[in-house]
Amino acid sequence: MSAFPKNFLWGGATAANQLEGAYNGDGKGLSIADALPGGPDRFKIANQPDFDWSIDETKYRYPNHSGIDFYHHYQGDIKLFAEMGFKCYRFSVAWSRIFPNGDDTRPNEAGLKFYDRVIDECLKYNIKPVITISHYEMPLNLVTKYGGWKNRQLIDFYETYARVILNRYAARVKYWMTFNEINSALHFPVMGQGLVKSNGADKMQNIYQAWHNQFVAGARAVKIAHSLRPDLQIGCMLLYATTYAYDANPENQLAALKENQAFNHFCGDVQVRGTYPAYTESVMNRYGFSFKDLDVTAEDLATLKANPVDYIGFSYYMSTAVNVTDKSLETANGNLVGGVRNPFLKASDWGWQIDPTGLRIALNELSDRYQKPVFVVENGLGAKDVPDANHFVQDDYRINYLRAHIQAIQGALADGVDVMGYTPWGCIDLVSASTGQMSKRYGFIYVDLDDQGNGSGKRYKKASFGWYKQVIASNGERL
After folding, report:
1. Name one GO molecular function term (predicted).
2. In the chain, what are the domains?
3. Of 244, 376, 421, whose CA–CA distance to 321 is shortest?
């Protein structure tokens, strides 16, 4: 297997809305995450026709409101990351902490100062920040007042926000991403686009219009970033689920190709290549509309062409299999995508099919397609950790999962892929985005909180903490 490059970015990843807490503190406005109830039915609730984004604490719990209180514990948490030897830390800025309503004329200085402190704390330990500009936490007002990302006005609001934080932090932060898992909206547009059934999620044309608006907004952020610092790296971020045809039946092979185009490739093609792909019309026709039905200007297309991203960040948790010829097959659960159950794979506690080889395939596919560096910015195992009397978790299952995926990255490096780094998801336990639970844990660090918010909130190192420290210290030689 190929050795990891000396400058490989080992680290971990989190999102503001899942760990910060302080949801209404120091001038922060409400975000869509603040209005999503916790629990495994959170998306079903959000997609009820009468869902109006109101917060009803008599009916639901809102674990994002408190998260793990990183807002007040960031110094201790980052110190633990440093103890593991992190070279980088991927986190997001909460848009509504900077612009509480999204359409404000002036930013919230208290919010900007918080991220000043977080960035400085990282740099104190020589940890490079990797910042996601928008990670499933757009200001709620942009949904309730403007209808979410299907409204072109959000392009300007995002540009204003991006300009403020890029100007503020670019001198200290080299690595950025525009939108988290932008393609996830194909199946669940609520988090990325602020769209639910009550405001247009049931019409695919709205989702593609929202994507277009996000593509343009992201391209404007790229332009701003490059004007501030020529060596700044700003990427897109995709949810990538390596997709297989279930068998050699040509119908299933074609169906897998179409699924790859619609889900894995479409958003990347526009943001990396700067143009809409040749199959655009085919994809849109499948949903009963045409590209000409979208509100797209010549200026938009010129902006996309002139400002492609520098690298491809992506999450990888599982692969998926496609079968359109046998409707009797068992379906699989997954990270927003499922498909049919793959008989060659085992699954996690939440039914996500574990496929390290799929990560090697994904890295090769993305590298071959775009000829740009790739960055594994999310990967991990959500599991039910059971601590002993001393709060210690012997999470060998997590170590085995991560080891296999790191070996897959080694394989991709041997294949010639330019891999920038690896930041496993939820490096410290946090609230799950898909289920709103604390019990679905990913971290190297156990946080003593349960799904009802009970617990001390204290941090404890799991067995995987020491293992990952060894991996980083040896630059991937000791797995």
Report:
1. beta-glucosidase activity
2. 9-473 (3.20.20.80)
3. 244
Start-to-end C-alpha separation, the chain: 12
pLDDT digits (tens, 9 = 90+) for 252-282: 999 999 999 999 999 999 999 999 999 999 9
Tokens representing residue 27 in the block: 């001038």
Reading phi first (left if > 0) and then psi (alpha if -120 to 50, else beta), residue 194 is in: left
Class of residue 391 by CB neighbours under 10 A (exposed 0-12, middle 13-18, buried 19+): middle
Q: Give the active site residue among 20, 137, 259, 378.
A: 378
Residue 330 known to be catalytic: no
